[in-house]
């Protein structure tokens, strides 16, 4: 999924893919393939910075060395953990939505194996962040998480996703997002630890509230109906 599917693009081809993906993603934010391509073709400088931070972190270096994958065969044991644990919360999140960790798209446009892995890791831990921040998977929740992701990684794709998402809000959603979710997401993304340097799988067995406190994570606000 990381190495064999990669495609080498020259600068003009990268620009063409980026522009085409951006236009397509704005027209249809549900196109995960276009969002993925946009993230890869515009995100190289951001992923390079993330890679350096991971190399400077003991836990991040362990992730780079062992290259864990968030796929069913590697995280399936989370379904057997005690209810209060981070792993069990992740399993509930996935099971309640009938999601599979195997559904993530491969990385195609990263130049090196290291950058391809970092891009894949960012893609695969997305649902860990949903679990930790307590965000739903509707348009509001996904847009809020993209704000957190931007604060953590400075990926241009995250900003475009927020623009595309908010453009599709109705009046009530827009009010809720900018009154409750957006200011929380900006602060939450800054306050927490460097989440790309966390070896999540080694913390599955730990209490969810404990890992949230240790990583400085403030869950999303409860929005009054």
UniProtKB/TrEMBL annotation:
Q: What is its EC number?
A: 4.1.1.130
Determine the domain of life of the protein's source. Eukaryota
Keyword line: Lyase, Membrane, Metal-binding, Mitochondrion, Mitochondrion inner membrane, Ubiquinone biosynthesis, Zinc
Which Gene Ontology MF annotations are present?
A: 4-hydroxy-3-methoxy-5-polyprenylbenzoate decarboxylase activity; zinc ion binding
Topology of the protein relative to the lipid bilayer:
Peripheral membrane protein
The entry marks the following residues as binding Zn(2+), namely 126-127, 130, 142
Q: Which reaction equations make up its catalytic activity? A: a 4-hydroxy-3-methoxy-5-(all-trans-polyprenyl)benzoate + H(+) = a 2-methoxy-6-(all-trans-polyprenyl)phenol + CO2
Tell me the compartments it is located in: Mitochondrion inner membrane
Q: Name one GO cellular component term.
A: extrinsic component of mitochondrial inner membrane
Q: Say if the entry is tagged with keyword Plastid.
A: no
- What does the record give as cofactor? Zn(2+)
Pathway listed: Cofactor biosynthesis; ubiquinone biosynthesis
Kind of enzyme, top EC level? lyase
Function noted in UniProt: Lyase that catalyzes the C1-decarboxylation of 4-hydroxy-3-methoxy-5-(all-trans-polyprenyl)benzoic acid into 2-methoxy-6-(all-trans-polyprenyl)phenol during ubiquinone biosynthesis.
Q: How does it assemble?
A: Component of a multi-subunit COQ enzyme complex.
UniProt lists the family membership as follows: Belongs to the COQ4 family.
Official protein name in the record: Ubiquinone biosynthesis protein COQ4 homolog, mitochondrial
Report the source organism.
Answer: Punica granatum
Lineage start = Eukaryota, Viridiplantae, Streptophyta, Embryophyta, Tracheophyta
Gene giving rise to this polypeptide: LOC116213384
């Amino acid at each position: 999924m990381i190495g064999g599917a990669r495609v080498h693009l020259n600068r003009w081809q990268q620009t063409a893919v980026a522009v085409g993906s951006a236009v397509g993603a704005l027209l249809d934010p549900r196109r995960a393939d276009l969002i993925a391509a946009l993230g890869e073709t515009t995100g190289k400088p951001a992923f390079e910075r993330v890679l350096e931070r991971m190399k400077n972190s003991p836990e991040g270096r362990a992730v780079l060395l062992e290259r864990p994958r968030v796929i069913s065969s590697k995280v399936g044991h989370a379904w057997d953990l005690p209810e209060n644990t981070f792993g069990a919360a992740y399993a509930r999140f996935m099971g309640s939505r009938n999601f599979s960790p195997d559904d993530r798209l491969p990385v195609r446009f990263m130049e090196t194996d290291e950058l391809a892995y970092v891009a894949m890791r960012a893609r695969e831990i997305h649902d860990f962040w949903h679990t930790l921040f307590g965000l739903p998977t509707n348009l509001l929740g996904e847009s809020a998480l993209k704000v957190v992701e931007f604060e953590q990684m400075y990926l241009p794709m995250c900003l475009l996703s927020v623009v595309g998402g908010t453009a599709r809000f109705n009046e009530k959603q827009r009010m809720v997002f900018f009154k409750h979710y957006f200011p929380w997401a900006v602060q939450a993304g800054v306050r927490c630890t460097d989440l790309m340097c966390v070896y999540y799988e080694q913390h599955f067995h730990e209490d969810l509230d404990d890992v949230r406190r240790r990583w400085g994570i403030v869950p999303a606000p409860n929005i009054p109906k």
